[in-house]
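Hi all, long-time lurker, first post. I run a small reading group and we've been trying to get comfortable going from sequence to structure in the token notation. Rather than ask abstract questions, I figured I'd post a concrete chain and ask someone more experienced to write out its structure so we can walk through it together at our next meeting. Sequence below, copied exactly:
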Amino acid sequence: MPRTIVICGGGRNVGKTFLAQELGRLLPRSIVIKIGLHHARHEKNSNFFALETPYSVIESSFPRTELLIIESGSILDDPDLEPDLVIFLPSSDPAGDKPGSERRRRQAHLVRGDSFDPSIVEQIRTRLAVDEQTMGSILKALSG
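-- Answer (accepted) --
Happy to help. Here is the structure in token form:
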């Protein structure tokens, strides 16, 4: 079973795709996946799955992958998924996050703009099986 990072956000254009791609570069044995309503934009999302695709289908599509980076808040509703890391990117819209985002924020281990608890960061580093330098690079990418 691969380790899993889920990136979700408080709205559109908050940097989910950019962060997913950056983490994919930092974690070379990973696959970046987008789940959404619309068709894939191949220049950004070559591994695209339709909304409500079960995690088991995604996981079985990449049997030799060590790490899945999934851009989707909806996947967090799948009872078969226990993500190793959930990242939430708040909206920069003055009106705030889209409705329902507060639940995703509460599910997150790390939230862009919040301080990072060192003990939580160490737990995440251990779950992801990355060294301290790589974890620092992940935090730097998240900080943005």
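A couple of things your group might point at:
Strands lie at 3-9, 30-36, 48-50, 67-71, 85-89, 110-111.
The chain has one domain: 3-143.
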